[in-house]
Amino acid sequence: MWRQTVEEKLKVTLGQWQPLGGGDFAQSWRAVVMEAELSSALKPGESVFIKTHANPPPRHFTTEAWGLAWLQEVKVLAVPAVLAVSDEPPFLALQWIEEGSRIASTEAELGRALACLHQAPCSHFGRLDERSTGSLGLPNASGKSWSQFYGSQRLLPLARIAAERNALRRSTVQQIETLASRLDEYGDAELQPSRLHGDLWAGNRLVDSDGCSWLIDPASHGGHREFELAMMRLFGGFGEECFHAYQEQFPLADGWQERVSLHQLAPLIVHAIKFGQAYTGPTEEALNRYV
Prior knowledge:
By secondary structure, this protein is α+β, with helices and mostly antiparallel strands.
């Protein structure tokens, strides 16, 4: 059913469907345009990236498509073009990116581009449409304060989910709840929100055949720019040249090194919920720095 809808929206006939790995949530394919209507934006022989899910969170793929468009508005980062999207049936069709290898300038160019993205105007923390993001459906109620957003829209919902799924010890959940009430101690009350990709680990960055970085799979929202960089450091995969170039373009506030684990806490809890005990120790270690 959804494959037929993809073809109708793209005005093409697709073939050579090839399943792709690498994701822990959606099912993804590469498909080739076999025939195309004259009014289609695609041509025979072109590849298309398509992903779907049997039971995604509400409005999941249109939310992701919006996030890609929101990042693209700034025109400083490469993101795949949205070719077609639907929540019923659920799928997202994107421009195919031919992957290659990094070149000498790849990391520094990404760092500068991220700095420009984070400098672009953003009026709010969270999302104005307040749609949830990610496989856990985290809320994104909009607001003017980082401490309010990170506490009420990230740490407390994650503490609740972790408790419901017995992913963390009760004492650890209580520590998270305590920290959520004390975030004003770690954030500037006048901090301005930045446009964030929101889930920027190495698997959500592609490098094309020209050595250019492309960002995929966003959980876009307005947030603290230190969160983005802390997420990038958490699992590795980004060169130090990237961080140096970012710092030269848009220096971080004093004391940012002491806040890295604070920003990494949310993704660590997510991983403890989704993947189990390997992440409970790192979660507790990060918490113990602040509570």
